[in-house]
Amino acid sequence: MSAQTPIAGDFVSLLASHNLAPVRADASNAAPAQTQATTVFAFHFAGGVLMAGDRRATAGNVIVTDRVDKVLELDATSLLAIAGVPATAFEMARVLQTSFEYYRRSQLQSLSLPAKVRALARLLRDNLPMTMQGVGVVVPLFAGVDAHATPPKPQIYFYDPLGAQFQAVGHAASGSGSGTIRSVLSFQERYGRPGPSQMNLEEAVRFALRLLMTASELDAATGGVNPGAETFATIKVLRASGVETVSDEQQAEWLRQ
What is the pLDDT of residues 172-195, one digit of tens each? Predict the structure, then answer.
C-alpha cells in the first residue's frame, strides 16, 4: 500500500496518505495509572446476539466510575464491546464508525462482515507498540451481521491484544470477570434448560444480568448489577434486522420476574 495513494473506500489508508495514524501513540515511563474497563461478553440467543457489559471503570484499586457504556454501536449491523483501556478503545470505535460510514458513502454499499472484522484487527495491530509496553491494551469483542448467509445471521468474534481474530460458536467474553462468565455460559450450554441459544429475549437479558451479578461477587473490578441503586448493565441486541438497546427500565422489570 502506498502512503500517497489511499485505497478506494478505505478511511484508514486515507489518513495514512496524510501521515495521520488514528490510534498510534508513544508511551513513556511517566504514563499515569490507566483506567481499565471490564467485563464484557456476548452470546447467541434465539433472536440473535446479546452483547452486554458492566459499567465499572477502575484505575488500580480505585473505582473511577460506574457509568461507563462498554457496548458501542458502530453502525446499523455492528457492535463493539470493549475491555481494557477506554481511551484507546473509544478511539478505535470512533475510527471504525467513521471508516464504515466513509466506505458506505464513497462506495454506495456497506462494508462486508469479513472486512469489518479485519478493520478492527488492523487497529489492534497498529496499537502493538502500546500493547507491548503494557499501555493502552484493548481486548474487544465484535458482533456483526453476515449478510451473505441465508438467512442473514449475526456472528460473534473475539480478538487477542495483538489483533488475531476468532469466530465464537456460542459465546465470548473479555475482561477480568470473563473467566467466571465463560464458565457459567459453558455450563448452561451443556447442561442448562433452556440453553443460551434457546432463550427468548427476556430470558437472555435476565440470564445476562445474573451472569454479571455472579462475576461481581468474584471480581472486584466488575461492577455487577444493583437494582436498589438503579445500576444496571449496558445491553444491546443484534438481530439480522439491526441493533436494539435494552433499557434500564426493561432490565429492572425482567429481573424482578
Answer: 999 999 999 999 999 999 999 999
